[in-house]
Amino acid sequence: MMKIGRKTGLVLEGGGMRGVFTSGVLDAFMKHGLYFPYVVAVSAGACNGVSYMSRQPRRARFSNIDMLEKYDYISLKSLLMQGSIFDPNILYDRFPNEIIPFDYDAYATNPATFEVVTTNCLTGRAEYLTERRDAGRLTAIIKASSSLPYVAQITEVDGVPMLDGGIVDSIPIVRAVDMGYSPNVVVLTRNRGYRSQEPDIKVPKFFYKDYPRLRVALSHHVEVYNEQLALIERMEDWGEVVCIRPERPLEVDRICRDTKKLEALYEEGFQLGEQFCTSI
Fold first, then answer.
1. Is-contact 17 265, C-beta < 8 A?
2. What pLDDT, on the 0 to 100 scale, is given for residue 44?
3. How far apart are CA 199 and CA 1, in angstroms?
4. Helix (H) or strand (E) holding 219
5. pTM of the entire structure?
């Protein structure tokens, strides 16, 4: 049994639409009033985590399932017309400002630390960014962290070109420990034992030609991710982390549009989140 204290951190993996699992877990946490002093999140984990930080239950679920069904915001048309396969106008403008307004006041007054991981395209390294009051900068950080390579435009934060934080730090457990938080709860979007079977390939120079260090990072992404998965499992066996993850291999991929599959994955996350809350 884990005791949640002032040095317990929460780590949220990304994974595109697999992140609907995370939204279920976080809704269960909010139902039970479980909050952490430190949260570090990547990509889809950041999109879900920001609603957890503003304490708005089911908001992330709505964006992942209900809004997808209504607005169909994943499309090649969006990629061609707006430079991103995930419609940025709906997700980063209409959603937080009109559809379900983000509670900036609740977010700003939340005493917890919330860090979002991005990849700096110039250095090819992870950046861990925070923003408490500037709504435009916060949106840019979340958008940058979620900008999947090849199918989303580079997003600038503070004049620096950024992409998806999952390129270099998909599961930022080392960051959480370095910030002084231990033990940690880690919400993953893959079952235990999963390893990516995709081969790492050297990224051709015509991709991101102005960012050679980004190309190097992309060329080692799978190797780094699999190493992180192995580290998490070792830490779990040592009792240094508690993992909440899907129990079976997923039927949902990064750009899944099947709302029935997404609903089932959300429900699994919610149930496992409830189990965790009632066990501590």
1. no
2. 96
3. 38
4. helix 212-219
5. 0.96
